[in-house]
Structure formats: structure tokens, C-alpha cells
Amino acid sequence: MNYLTPAQASAQFLSLFIFAEIAAWYVAPWLKARPRADALIALLWVHVFRYVALQVFTAQEHGFPISDQGAMEIVVGDVAGAAIAFVTIALLRYRVRLAIPLAWLLVAETAYDTVTNIHGGVREHLMGAASDTTWFVLAYFVPMVIVSTVLIAWQLYSRRHEALDGREDGTGEATVLQASQAPG
Length: 184
Description:
This protein is an all-alpha fold. The chain has helices at about 5-30, 35-50, 55-60, 70-95, 100-125, 130-160. The chain is globular.
């Protein structure tokens, strides 16, 4: 019997379950105690490292049976996600409101990328074919990206009336105090 497919599927499911529990027990309470922008920044950093998908070319060279088109779909989707995440972090650091639509774009792009990659993996019969670095990426990093994406969507939706600096202002804009109004 070939145990590679159930082993990979089990590892992905277990990682997804464990990351979800960590998120519920530790990450969600921590995020609630942070200003909106800082909470989003922490979650977005996971996505910046999605360029790890570039390793699919090395995996392909060493026997991972993915087509050139399939490899390129993975790389383009993940590198685009990494770039969107990094730009969003930079904008959030300066409390620029454009960061919020970009964060939503990342959520949508990641959902699309995930579905596309699953479809491509089924089409090319890749489940259970991963080994070495590819196996670790699929078993640990992909579930972390999925849980992070759900948390980003939750933060974006549940804190939609909160300013980027954490204050309630009803518009989602950061309230900036003028120098003359600053305390002290």
C-alpha cells in the first residue's frame, strides 16, 4: 500500500487543526489587545514568506511531477501574495487607509490561489507526490497561511469600524491629533 497520500493529507489536516487551536487559544486574544493596524501587520508577516513557493522549480527538477504550467501558477500566485502582503504592511506602518482594501485583496487572492492550487494538484495527481522541502511547505506552511488568512478576514470584518490606531471613530480612519491638541 502507498502511504504517501494519506500521510501528506493527515499532516496537512493535523497542522490545520493545530494552527486553528493555537489561533483560538493564543493568537485571537493577543490580536484583540492590539491596535487594528498592529494586529493586521502581525498576521500579514506570514504571507510575506510565500515566496518559498519558488522552491517548486527545484522540486520539479528533482522529480516532483508537476507541469511547468502548474509550477508557474503556484509561483505567480504566491509571489503576488507575498508582494501584496509586504506593501500592505508598509502602508499599515504609516496608517495609510489604502492598506485595508489591499488586505482584503490579499484575502481574496489567497482564497483564489488556494482553490486553484488544490484544483491543479488534483488535476496533476500531486497528492502524496511531495517530498523533502515541498512536503514541509505543504504540511506546515500552507496550513499556517490558511489560518492566517481566516484571521486577517476576521480582523478586517470584526474591526471594520475601528481606526487603524485602535480608536473607535466610526469611519475606519486613524484619528490624528494636531500638534496643538496633543496631550502634555
